[in-house]
Amino acid sequence: MSGTDGRMSGTDGRMSGTGTEGPVAGPYPAPLAGPLKGGADGSFPAGTPRGGHQQWIFAMLPAFPLALLVVRLWYASRQDTQTLLLLVQHVSALGLLTAVLLTTLWVLPALVLTGRVLGTLYRVSTGRSSWLSAVADRISDWIVVLSVMVGAVSWQLRFLPTLAALSLAALGLTVHDRRPGRRELVVVFTLWLPLVAGAGLYVWLAPAIGEAFARGDVVTAVLLTLPPGLACLLTGPVPARAAAALTSTLAVAVLALAPLFTAAVVVEAPILPLVGLEISEEGAEEEIAGKVLIGHVIATDDRVSTFLGQDGTVRFIANGAVASQFLCPDLGQIPRSRVALHRWYVEHSVLAWFAPDPLAKPSDPRCPGRPANP
């Protein structure tokens, strides 16, 4: 035993030395000699980043606008394959992409703010983390501020109270989550600030709220009235038992409705200018002679014009048979609500409010499809 102890003692002496006879003992692990690999069961060591498993999501993001463009052309072609191919050949993708980007411009702020609010609300209410909390942590503060600025400029007036309520909720919950020991600071940002901001919004929106109720515009009245009052309720924790169900349900609903809403808006977006063609009595087919056709001119050459009617019919009309061509307004862009706040209509954004007013010109009487000289 003594000999063994002596040999062990010698070994300890060599290990504790400072020479190059052996590795230095200590708590430092040996460096990895190659890429990190999972175990036999597919698990990874603690602390291993798992972002690689989600790269396919980022790879598929560019495919979403492309899918929307194809759906829009398929919708315009009335499910006819040949018409769809004709539109793909002649319609500019830049115009359709512009419609997608303009729609995404005010959908993204809603997704960012909703994700930040729901994730932080779950952690503040339960004291635990979930996938919603992880999403909220990945949304940086500067992204939240940029989203609020983009929403303030691009959202319609009737949605600005909702934007203010979401912004106040994100601010109050963030302060509650990061500074739980600063009781006076939490009270200021979760109670007093929402109360003051809500009172200010009601004073500012009072004329528009009264006009909405007077006109019977229930949707506008609700959008202008409810969010400022709910701002105080969104900045505080909810019962822990209801937090998981509430936040998960709202998150799934938002994630499911956002693509559908975006697709619905893009499908209704114009792909080409809406024009009218007045066909002469001579040189045209008997079916369309002397009529006014409303639709879109897909292409024009030195002989014929390719015309897509509003009913989805494609016609090749000889240029000599076209008596006149005129531009018609898009009826889908006509406001549905006449409620205004200081000449700012509730369906207009800040950009539209500051932009020059459109030219006051009468619509062509032939746009409904009636010829000028029947």
UniProtKB/TrEMBL annotation:
Residue ranges annotated as transmembrane are 56-75, 87-108, 185-206, 218-236, 243-267
Q: What is this protein called?
A: Uncharacterized protein
Enumerate the residue ranges of region (Disordered): 1-31
Q: Superkingdom, according to UniProt? A: Bacteria
Source organism per UniProt: Planobispora rosea
What keyword terms does UniProt attach to this protein?
Answer: Membrane, Transmembrane, Transmembrane helix
